[in-house]
Amino acid sequence: MATKLRFLTVSQVQRLHARFVVPNAVPVQPNMLESAIHSPMNMKHYAKEEDVFQLAANLAEKIMLNHAFQDGNKRTALLAADMFLKINGFYLQKVPFAEDLNNKALANAHVAVVTKQWTAQQLGIYYKSVAAPLGPVTAEVMDYRSSALEY
């Protein structure tokens, strides 16, 4: 039986982008953002992918390559992958974009995907290697979790 997972919505990813990347920005290509957001759900349904890290990597790759925002697509991809993992019990970043080795390595991993040095599958393996189980759930994560799509 398939595991129920929570998936981010378009508005949630836009909220992350506006909060951490570019205030009040809207996607310049909203259909490309919608496509990126739905990609991990499609992957789960059609490819029967159950690995939350592979699904997070798929989400990040699509956000980066679909280039829905004028600026900050790699940063938005990292925020979205991290929040996707958080609403499903793991995390990548303790503090978004903190100046630490973990966040620098995550940024480099995203550059590797965009420059075709890594595949999304390699990114998922990397996420799995650096992710940690989510401890106490913050109010922000609870908010995202409660309004996420469950599938």
TrEMBL record:
<dbReference type="InterPro" id="IPR003812">
    <property type="entry name" value="Fido"/>
</dbReference>
<dbReference type="InterPro" id="IPR006440">
    <property type="entry name" value="Doc"/>
</dbReference>
<dbReference type="GO" id="GO:0016301">
    <property type="term" value="F:kinase activity"/>
</dbReference>
<feature type="domain" description="Fido">
    <location>
        <begin position="8"/>
        <end position="129"/>
    </location>
</feature>
<dbReference type="InterPro" id="IPR053737">
    <property type="entry name" value="Type_II_TA_Toxin"/>
</dbReference>
<protein>
    <recommendedName>
        <fullName>Fido domain-containing protein</fullName>
    </recommendedName>
</protein>
<dbReference type="Pfam" id="PF02661">
    <property type="entry name" value="Fic"/>
</dbReference>
<dbReference type="InterPro" id="IPR036597">
    <property type="entry name" value="Fido-like_dom_sf"/>
</dbReference>
